[in-house]
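stage 2 :: seqdesign
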């Protein structure tokens, strides 16, 4: 494989993992408290979603999609549990 092709492939894979994805639909009273809870729980979910297992899978070209899927699922679970702890109900995204 030519170096330029390898570089483009690596760049494409790394940028694909930066795309946004839905964490879930929050149900409850609208307002500033809900908005702040969503922002806080999104931050908690993004920081807590990276695990050693997903890093190890991401170190191989074949494991990158599985590692990204694991991180997304963990982020969705963390977001839902954080919002439910604050009294909101969350419909998980698939």
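stage 2 :: out
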């Amino acid at each position: 494989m030519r170096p330029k092709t390898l570089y483009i492939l690596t760049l494409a894979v790394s940028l694909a993992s930066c795309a946004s994805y839905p964490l879930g639909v929050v149900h409850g009273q609208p307002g500033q408290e809900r908005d702040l809870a969503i922002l806080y729980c999104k931050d908690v979910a993004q920081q807590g979603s990276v695990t050693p297992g997903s890093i190890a899978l991401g170190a191989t070209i074949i494991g990158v999609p599985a590692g990204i899927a694991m991180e997304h699922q963990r982020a969705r679970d963390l977001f839902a549990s954080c919002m439910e702890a604050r009294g909101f109900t969350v419909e998980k995204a698939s």
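stage 3 :: structure notes
- Strands lie at 24-27, 89-92.
- The first helix runs from residue 3 to 16.
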